[in-house]
């Protein structure tokens, strides 16, 4: 094996992407739905490979510049994703979930710091325990920033790479329960409280018109339809389209063909016997009154209406706070349907009473004219665009580095957000500005996902490789046990406190609160499992706001965990 490890040592980029590829492969494996994930897999693979090579006298190590670059790209990508949701959360009912996220994050930080001091753990353990117990891998980077910036004073004889290794070690020990524990807690908290969350979800669905957006998959059922009928019923002959709509508001006449030629759907157009009427509405309504107009026909002229599907980005401030139900009386109602809603980068179980928020992404399908009209009304149509505004990316990165240079006195030293925190804040600022000024700054979701996913997994892979050689020298059974106990407690206690506050103080629906607890830990896995447990997508309603807030807090708290645990 020595020639193989020597080859990897001499080809650092081959080494890097060998670890990244293995991490992604291992991260996909799961046992009954539970797995490491690619980030934890990167730590395990990187550190394991480095330890293995060291037994042959080969030290694997990668460039710190590369490590920092990818971490900075990741942090900026996180800021772009959570920015609009973070700002939207600071009003209305979102404040409740903001509070829950703050409580969970602060308690997690406090417990980690307390046990790091109580157990007299080595420098670096606090940052790693926070990242692992709260399943916030990004906190590894901010914890490391506290070391490289010199804010954390290392004990005599300890090298920076030893502290970085302890961060990685503590993360690996606490991550498993951090992941499995929060999933189990979120799934069974209502049951432990004596609450039927499934019944609570059904009540919420009924009260707010929420339907299952995930369970159907690809089926033959379509909620809305468009059909053509030849007008033979004398009751409708001589009636204008506007009058027909006032009598039958559940239907929309979207086109009329007369003599084989399309006439459009002007409200003043008077229907004549023999006209072929293209009628839109729900599947139930279209099959409810079969003889309302006449027999159904397959008419190309009537049904040859341009259709479209698009993602609409909500930017019009006049639309913020309005429910989907409030658009029922508009002219385009019945001409399109909402297929998906995303908020803060995650799917939202939307219903009739769901209120629109700025930067919601609403996927619709229907008549092209109706889609365009809705886009103008709500904000803009976000067509698939593979181009990225690299100028905005460069400006945002520069702004982040400048913010990171700002320092202020605290804890007996000068501290600041650092490059990572500055880039996170810069991403929030840029995404918020872009949401208001529509003519620049395009960063497609796919491009942002590359910044986040590749940035984080490459960074963590390098951390694991560089830390691996020194892990065995630092690891003892006593230290490992203390780290596990501290991580176990820091993972387990905050969700119970968050649940108690949300249920007893804020009176949040238990099904929604399940998602709020998952979001407060910035982990989508528990929310997904909760939705499966109660067979409803309602938990996703409580997830986005808490997820955005805790994502920012826990990332930054890795830095403060290192400082406070000194």
From TrEMBL:
Main localization (coarse): membrane
Localization per record: Cell membrane
Swiss-Prot/TrEMBL keywords: Cell membrane, Membrane, Transmembrane, Transmembrane helix, Transport
Bilayer topology: Multi-pass membrane protein
UniProt xrefs under PROSITE patterns: RCK_C
UniProt xrefs under SUPFAM superfamilies: TrkA C-terminal domain-like (SSF116726)
Domain RCK C-terminal residues, every copy: 211-295
Domain of life: Bacteria
Membrane-spanning intervals of the chain: 12-31, 38-57, 69-90, 97-119, 168-189, 415-434, 454-472, 484-506, 545-565
Gene Ontology, cellular component aspect: plasma membrane
Family note: Belongs to the AAE transporter (TC 2.A.81) family.
Record-given protein name: Transporter
Source organism: Bradyrhizobium frederickii
């Amino acid at each position: 094996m020595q020639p193989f490890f020597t080859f990897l040592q001499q080809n650092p980029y081959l080494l890097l992407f060998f670890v990244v590829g293995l991490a992604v492969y291992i991260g996909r494996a799961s046992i009954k739905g539970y797995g490491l994930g690619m980030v934890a897999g990167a730590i395990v693979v990187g550190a394991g490979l480095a330890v293995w090579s060291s037994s042959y006298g080969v030290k694997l190590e990668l460039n710190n510049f590369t490590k920092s670059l990818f971490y900075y790209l990741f942090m900026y990508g996180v800021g772009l994703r959570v920015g609009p949701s973070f700002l939207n959360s600071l009003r209305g009912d979102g404040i409740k979930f903001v509070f829950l996220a703050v409580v969970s994050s602060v308690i997690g930080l406090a417990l980690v710091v307390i046990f790091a001091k109580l157990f007299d753990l080595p420098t670096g353990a606090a940052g790693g325990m926070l990242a692992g117990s709260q399943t916030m891998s990004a906190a590894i980077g901010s914890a490391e920033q506290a070391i490289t910036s010199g804010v954390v004073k290392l004990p005599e004889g300890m090298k920076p790479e030893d502290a970085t290794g302890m961060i990685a070690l503590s993360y690996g020990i606490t991550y498993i329960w951090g992941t499995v524990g929060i999933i189990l807690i979120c799934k069974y908290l209502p049951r432990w409280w004596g609450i039927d969350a499934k019944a609570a979800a059904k009540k919420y669905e009924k009260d707010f018109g929420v339907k299952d957006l995930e369970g159907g998959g690809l089926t033959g059922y379509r909620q809305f339809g468009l059909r053509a009928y030849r007008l033979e019923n004398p009751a409708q002959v001589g009636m204008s389209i506007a009058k027909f709509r006032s009598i039958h508001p559940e239907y929309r006449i979207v086109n009329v063909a007369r003599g084989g030629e399309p006439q459009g759907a002007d409200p003043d157009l008077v229907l004549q016997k023999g006209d072929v009427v293209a009628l839109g509405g729900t599947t139930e309504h279209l099959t409810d009154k079969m003889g309302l107009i006449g027999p159904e026909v397959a008419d190309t002229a009537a049904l040859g209406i341009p259709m479209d599907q698009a993602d609409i980005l909500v930017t019009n401030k006049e639309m913020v706070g309005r429910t989907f139900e409030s658009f029922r009386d508009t002219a385009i109602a019945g001409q399109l349907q909402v297929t998906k809603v995303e908020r803060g980068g995650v799917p939202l179980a939307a219903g009739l009473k769901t209120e629109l928020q700025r930067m919601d992404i609403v996927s619709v399908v229907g008549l092209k004219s109706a889609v365009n009209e809705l886009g103008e009304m709500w904000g803009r149509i976000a067509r698939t665009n593979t181009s990225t505004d690299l100028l905005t990316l460069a400006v945002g990165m520069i702004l982040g580095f400048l913010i990171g240079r700002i320092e202020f006195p605290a804890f007996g030293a000068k501290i600041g957000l650092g490059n990572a925190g500055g880039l996170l804040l810069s991403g929030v600022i840029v995404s918020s500005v872009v949401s208001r000024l529509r003519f620049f700054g395009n960063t497609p979701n796919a491009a942002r996902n590359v910044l986040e996913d590749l940035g984080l997994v490459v960074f963590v892979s390098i951390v694991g490789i560089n830390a691996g050689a020194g892990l065995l020298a630092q690891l003892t059974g006593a230290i490992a046990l203390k780290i596990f106990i501290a991580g176990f407690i820091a993972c387990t206690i905050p969700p119970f406190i968050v649940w108690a506050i949300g249920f007893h103080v804020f009176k949040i629906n238990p099904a929604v609160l399940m998602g709020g607890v998952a979001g407060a830990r910035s982990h989508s896995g528990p929310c997904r499992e909760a939705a499966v447990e109660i067979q409803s997508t309602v938990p996703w309603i409580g997830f986005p706001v808490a997820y955005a807030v805790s994502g920012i807090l826990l990332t930054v708290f890795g830095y403060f965990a290192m400082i406070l645990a000194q």
